Structures are given as C-alpha cells and as structure tokens.
Amino acid sequence: MRLSECLAHAGCDGTLISDGEFDILEQCTRIREKNALTFLENPKFASSLENPNISCLICAPQFAGQTPPHIKGIFITEMPKAAFFKIHNDLACKQEKIPTIIDPSANISPLAYVAPYNVVIGKCVELQPFVVVNEGSVLEDHVRVCSGTVIGAQSYTVVKDFQDRAFIGLDMGRTILEHGVQIGSNCNIERGVLQFDTTRIGAYSMLDNGVTVGHGTVIGRRGMIAGEALISGNCVFGDRLWIGVNATVANAITVKDDVRISLGAVVTKNVSSGETVTGNFAIPHRKFMENLKASLAEHTDSGQMPPPRGHREFFPFTRGFRKEAA
C-alpha cells in the first residue's frame, strides 16, 4: 500500500514529506511484521523508530528531522494517532469477507446471532440464546457460551481528533476461544484492534458471569476467572490463572503462570509466577496480610480499634439522636 494514496482516501490533514510503501499498521512499541506503518506523538517512544521493520511514519512536527534513514514514507500532522486510525478504519471497512463456517454438530440457539462472514465454529460448540458472535471470531471444538455473551465485542479504542472531537477505532483483529473453553452469561470478549491483534482464551479456561476481557488480551490454558472481573486490553496471562470476584487488571499487564489474583484486587504491575496478589493497589498477599496485622495491632495498642460493624458507634449520625433522648 502506498502512503500518499491511503492518506488521500482517508482524508488526513497534514504534510507529506516523502512517500513510501507499507504492508501493515502497527503501534511503534510492538512491531511484529516488516514494512509497517506506525505513528509517533509522544517523545518517550522515539527510540522505537530504530526498529528496521518500520517503513512509514506518521508523526508530530517536532519529530520530522529525527527519523532514521530506513523510514521512507513520512507524514507530518498535529494529530498523528488520529491520522493513523483514519487509515486503519478505512482499511477495516474494506476487509475481505469470507463466508462463515459452522460445523454441523454445533448446537446453536435460533435466538443466537452469528455473523455471516469471517467466523469459524468448531465441533460440538454450544451457543445459548442471545449470544452474539461477531466477525473475526474462531470458536474451537467443545466451546460453550452462555446467554447474553458477546464474542468479538467492539473494543474501546477512543481516538481524539482535535480538541472537541473523537472517534472509535474499528476492529480488524481476531477473537479465539480454544478447545473446551466455557464462557458464562453476559460476558464481553473484545476483538483485537489491529490486523495482527488477537484476543485469545486458552484451552479449558472457565469464565464466570459478567466478565470483561479487553482487546488483544491473551489468557493461557485452564484459567479460572470469577464473576464481574474486569481485564483491560493487551494483557498477557500464563497458564492456570485464578482471578477472584470483581478484580480489575490494568492495561498491558503481564501475569505469569500459576498466579492467583484475590477478589477485589486492582492489579497495576506485572506479576511473577506462582504469586498471589491482594489489595488496591495489589501487592503480594503475604505482604498485604503483614501490613493488615501491623495496622490492626497498632490501632488496638493505641485504643483506636473501631467497634464491630453493626455496633451503634459505627454510625456517627446516630450520636445526636442519643444525646437528645438523654
């Protein structure tokens, strides 16, 4: 694809310094294929431009004279990310349509929706009423999806376009549920955004009701995720994961094998193999318990231990009523 032609077709405002060819769109911090078009608007990622697989760049004016010689196509604009995703959205609308393939043994409710294109459904798959399977989804053999769940849901990729406007980046990636995965009711499994982005749920993983898995997140084999857990985009989880009820995992977090994330935890940092993390923000469980015990001991020694929950002193607004009654 030629940069100048794509810019013109997408209606991008800016200045073309030099033209070039590209085959794929990638974010500058994770270039996975050769001849990539990327964008740069934050100086802390400028070192990423040294990647020889970048052939074209959309960047802010301050980076115009800093591009390495292997980058042939250069486009200057005040809103690089917006221009990048305008090209991306234009290409997404032209994505090839391949008729959906459904194995005859699949048990699909007549009240479920399966996109007519770009879906593959394997043997003995079960889709309950009001399940939605969008384009770019692959459901391998013996997958079970309960009522109200969306597979390949639209990702939340918000792109600012000048001060008072914004738009959503369309999804071109895939969503893969491996062999034996079971998804509860009212879950949202988002589709990958860029062409090589894949949201993947590993074999024999079990997701409870109301779980959200963000775009491009990969969950290893036999993961167990309890109800209402929220996993942001571009995370990577190892095998034998446990995530408790209402836990939250921030964007682009890496969690290794055999990790347990306690209920209600908020994970903002990478987690090593075999660890259990607890709290908001989450820290190793043993450290959390040590801190809690020390805090309780400190308050007990100083006479500041709070009364048990439900005790009348726990409700300060009742003190005035008791004084009036006296």
If you had to describe this structure to a student in words, what would you say it looks like?
By secondary structure, the chain is an alpha/beta fold. It folds into two domains: 90 residues, Udp-n-acetylmuramoylalanyl-d-glutamate--2,6- Diaminopimelate Ligase, Chain: A, domain 1 (3-Layer(aba) Sandwich); 184 residues, Hexapeptide repeat proteins (UDP N-Acetylglucosamine Acyltransferase, domain 1, 3 Solenoid), CATH 2.160.10.10. 14% of the residues lie in helices and 27% in strands. The chain contains four helices and 33 strands. The chain has a ten-stranded mixed β-sheet. Strands 8-11-14-19-22-25-28-31 form an eight-stranded parallel β-sheet, with no helix packed on it. Helix 1 packs across helix 2. The C terminus is likely disordered.
Keywords:
globular; 27% strand; disordered C terminus; 4 helices; Udp-n-acetylmuramoylalanyl-d-glutamate--2,6- Diaminopimelate Ligase, Chain: A, domain 1; single chain; 33 strands
Tally the helices: what do you get? Answer: 4
Q: What is the β-strand count?
A: 33
Q: What structural category arises from helix and sheet content?
A: alpha/beta
First-to-last CA distance: 84 Å
User: What is the multimeric organization of the chains shown?
Assistant: single chain
Instruction: Give the strand order, joined by hyphens, for the main sheet.
Output: 7-10-13-18-21-24-27-30-32-33
Ranges with pLDDT <50 over ≥5 residues? 311-315, 321-326
Radius of gyration from CA coordinates: 25 Å
Mean pLDDT: 91
Assigned CATH architecture of the largest domain = 3 Solenoid
Question: Strand fraction band?
Answer: 25-35%
Helix content: 10-25%
CATH topology of the largest domain: UDP N-Acetylglucosamine Acyltransferase, domain 1
Which sheet architecture does the biggest sheet show?
10 strands, mixed
CATH homologous superfamily assignment of the largest domain: Hexapeptide repeat proteins
